[in-house]
Design a protein that fits this description.
44% helix, alpha/beta, DNA-binding, 13 helices, six-stranded mixed β-sheet, 12 strands, six-stranded parallel β-sheet, homodimer
Chain lengths: 342, 342
DNA sequence: TTGTACGCGTTATCAT
DNA sequence: ATGATAACGCGTACAA
């Protein structure tokens, strides 16, 4: 391995000077700088990142926490590739790397473990849920002053760094859209309220219904678990109340598609006999039949913002007041929510 | 930060002894060990991973290379979460961590960059393609003795560590299945042959057709780029030759679904008027209408094997003969390939 | 079975 | 503008 020492010798300078050149520190003669760079090039010298981390007492790694549940596909491809790419883009700009941790639900009860070994300087946490245990472990992280940022989740009554999308407004728009298309009897299929998204969406739905002077009868509220299967099963229930429902707003695409599949078996076709809007604008929304109207979420930007938020905390002024960022969503209209009785 | 020194002092031993206890090295008195552990516990001591890396001259990180193309969704959720989980499981068993790199096509022309800074001890490379430049940069890696393993890709004429699935056999089974269901005029829609999967699948298809005594006329060979759009566009062409085609085997699910969407617009329904089988058994296969028959690939195991392969190379005896692992695939039969004229 | 002492390749501080 | 040098926290060879 080529070290700083050899470069210094070849360039006829001290090791400190080599470091200064590579870190762009202090004033120095251009000639010296060039001599050093030339020597480094000749020797193919590259600073040892580990030694740098050791000396700087910073790993240069941003931890990214993903929930892992075997055989349960929580995320769409879009979610993964876009969020990770967003984070990746940002960390690269700041000379950082991404260290991935796939945590099972009980492992995520001790986030501090991630920081203990000093392998990460901060974390972006994806897919956290609002359980008492999780709240507690996040509060613990915060108390210890370990920098982290949540993505797509916030906690009532607690104040963390977080980047979320405006799911209330998104849902409001979705329901308004259905109303504009002539639908009145609009059901809402939600997922677990462990995810703040879920309650946000319920709020948006409720508000849109109220604003339109529509009543939310109990049959209009369906409970699922974000899986296609739960959507499929809800279709049976929906079918019983078919006189009282002409549209469904579902809290994610997967359930929306399950629902469409289930109702198709009864002979009801989305976009013809009833309308559906989903959430996430995942790949599946474009692949489904008919293509599913859905609420687009700017995952790439969310990842990028979250990473920025953590890294500025790590590198610069630690802002003591948590920064809450909320990006806007966008309704993508497709065939599944066509005008009533077209 | 609590260091080894403080633990040593509290336990009344030398620093070396503390290290020995934490690394389980050498014979030592049980009493000493317990005293050290007790002291460590009291102080909440945890070894500094960076200092360890520095001293050991190993980062303890396995690099994972993913291709990044903005707005192009190469992978299914299944692919991501399963492969990463497989790698994650294995690295954890060996006390390693995962360092993620999202590389654009031209960045991946210089893989050595990843190793230069010493932040990773080895790499698992996903989504590499068979281009002259990539071949060259991989050969360069190999020559320099940097440990890496490819997943789901192999290179004709070159011998790298790699973990692949048996796409030839998988495709053979898929086409056999279509034949068993009564189909004879079976088209094959392939993706870019930059991916070895593609040529493997063509081989399986060809062999199955030959074995059944069926001719492969030129109209039966369709070219796509693994996108839904290309599948959709191929539907138009297929429609022209509809007398000469009664089934399609597509090299991924996305194209298969695009094809089904396109032909549905002509009034042809998969599983009724023609049959389709895809590849990957992605989530989309279950979500599509009708559900898509597809070839399942053991992504989790592939990730795990790849990580194992690299890490044993890093840690133990560097086997000079590259290890090529091939796992088997499994056909998942769904509605899209129902029996002819049912 | 345990202690001593050195080295790892930087960063950063203090001289010059 | 540049050089000398003390950390940094651990692994480990060698000594005892």
């Amino acid at each position: 391995m080529v070290t700083r020492k050899e470069v210094a010798e070849l360039a006829g300078v001290s090791e400190a000077t080599v470091s200064r050149v590579f870190n762009g520190l202090g004033p120095m003669k251009l000639a010296t700088k060039e001599r050093v760079l030339e020597a480094a090039k000749q020797l193919d010298y590259h600073p040892n990142a580990i030694a740098q981390s050791f000396a700087r007492r910073r790993s240069g790694n941003l931890g990214v926490v993903l929930p892992y549940m075997p055989k349960v596909h929580l995320f769409s491809a879009f979610y993964f590739s876009e969020i990770l790419s967003g984070i990746g883009e940002q960390v690269r700009e700041q000379g950082y790397d991404m260290l991935l941790s796939l945590l099972t639900p009980d492992e995520s009860l001790d986030y501090t473990r991630l920081y203990r070994s000093q392998k990460v300087d901060g974390c972006v946490i994806l897919g956290s849920r609002n359980t008492p245990q999780q709240r507690q472990s996040l509060e613990q992280l915060q108390q210890q002053g370990l920098p982290f940022c949540l993505v797509n989740q916030h906690f009532e009554g607690l104040s963390f760094h977080e980047v979320d999308a405006d799911h209330v407004e998104g849902s409001y728009q979705a329901v308004r859209h259905l109303q504009d298309e002539g639908y009145r009897k609009i059901a809402f299929m939600n997922g677990s309220t462990d995810y703040s998204n879920s309650s946000d969406r319920l709020r948006g739905y409720t508000q849109a219904m109220n604003d339109a002077g529509l009543v939310i009868s109990p049959e209009l509220l369906l409970q699922g678990n974000y899986s296609r299967k739960s959507g499929y099963e809800a279709a049976a229930k929906l079918w019983e109340y078919r006189d009282q429902v002409d549209a469904v707003f579902a809290a994610n695409d997967r359930m929306a598609i399950g629902l469409m599949q289930g109702l198709r078996e009864k002979g009801w076709i989305a976009g013809r006999d009833f309308a559906v809007v989903g959430c996430d604008d995942s790949d599946a929304a474009k692949l489904s039949d008919p293509p599913l109207s859905s609420i687009n979420v700017p995952f790439y930007e969310m990842g990028k913002e979250a990473a920025r938020s953590v890294l500025t905390g790590v590198l610069g002024a630690r802002s003591d007041n948590p920064k809450q960022i909320q990006l806007s969503t966008q309704l993508m209209v497709r065939q599944s929510s066509k005008r009533f009785s077209d």
